[in-house]
Amino acid sequence: MDETVVQPTQNSTNPRSVLLQIFSLLIVVILFVLALNYFNLLPISKFFTFLPHKPYINNTGYRLPQPKQSLSPEDASKILTDSLVKILNSSMLPASTFYLKQDNVMKETFQASWSAQQKQFSTNITVSSQNKNITNSYLSFLDNTDASLSATTVKDTVSPYFILNPKGTWKCTAIYGSIYCENFWQEADGSKRGIGAQSIDSKQKVIFFCEYQKESSLYSWQSCTNTFANTGL
């Protein structure tokens, strides 16, 4: 009786071919996941923020607001410096650097201070992180002078500190037991500005400047102080 010897068959599958198939399948899966993420069907961009995707839309069809980019103090410092040279007399500008503090909650709001000509200057500004410009600002400093404040004399008290050309009318009124004087106007570009002075006592005066751009929440104001915000001086 003849015996048939059955030889074991060898696996004809190429290991390299198997790896190639696995790798190709993996690429397809990754591309598929990225496509789902792009169309926000599988929003993994919430965890991997570097991945591109379309803006998120809520159930009502409105685009959800994207998070604001925080403005760095370095950027705000440069923006403020560029702004001050267009407002103050050169002798009133910071000699080198100035103190700058960013608000912990309102990241677009900054406080700055510096000394010049034996005077202490301070300013509060709101900077647009999108347009890189100051949307509103208030600057003030103390001045020691014996000059009384009135609509005819306040210009001589205030003007030497600024390089501005006020286009409004100088007006003064009594407020909280002091004299408040102001010149408030609107520039051709739509921005609103004001400069003025307020007496503290017979010698000390607060000299101030304010500015509101159209993007500012204070743009409707008609004065540098909230007392006359709606009516103007």
Structure summarized in a few sentences:
By secondary structure, the protein is an alpha+beta fold.
Task: Explain how this protein is built.
This protein is of the alpha+beta class and 233 residues long. It folds into two domains: 14-67, no CATH class; 73-228, 3-Layer(aba) Sandwich (Protein Transport Mog1p, Chain A). The chain is built from three helices and eight strands. Strands 1-2-3-4-8-7-6-5 form an eight-stranded antiparallel sheet. The protein is elongated. It starts with 14 loop residues before the first helix and ends in a 21-residue tail after the last strand. The mean pLDDT is 81.
Give descriptors for this structure:
single chain; 233 residues; alpha+beta; Protein Transport Mog1p, Chain A; eight-stranded antiparallel sheet; 8 strands
Secondary-structure element series:
HHEEEEHEEEE
Largest sheet data: 8 strands, antiparallel
- State the separation between the terminal residues, measured CA to CA: 126 Å
Low-confidence stretches: none
The number of helical elements comes to 3
Rounded mean pLDDT score: 81
Query: Strand arrangement, largest sheet?
Result: 1-2-3-4-8-7-6-5
CATH T-level topology of the largest domain: Protein Transport Mog1p, Chain A
Mind telling me the CATH class of the largest domain? Alpha Beta
Could you give the topology of this structure?
Blueprint: H1 15-38, H2 73-84, E1 99-102, E2 109-116, E3 119-128, E4 133-144, H3 154-158, E5 171-175, E6 178-186, E7 192-199, E8 204-212
Antiparallel strand pairs: 1-2, 2-3, 3-4, 4-8, 5-6, 6-7, 7-8
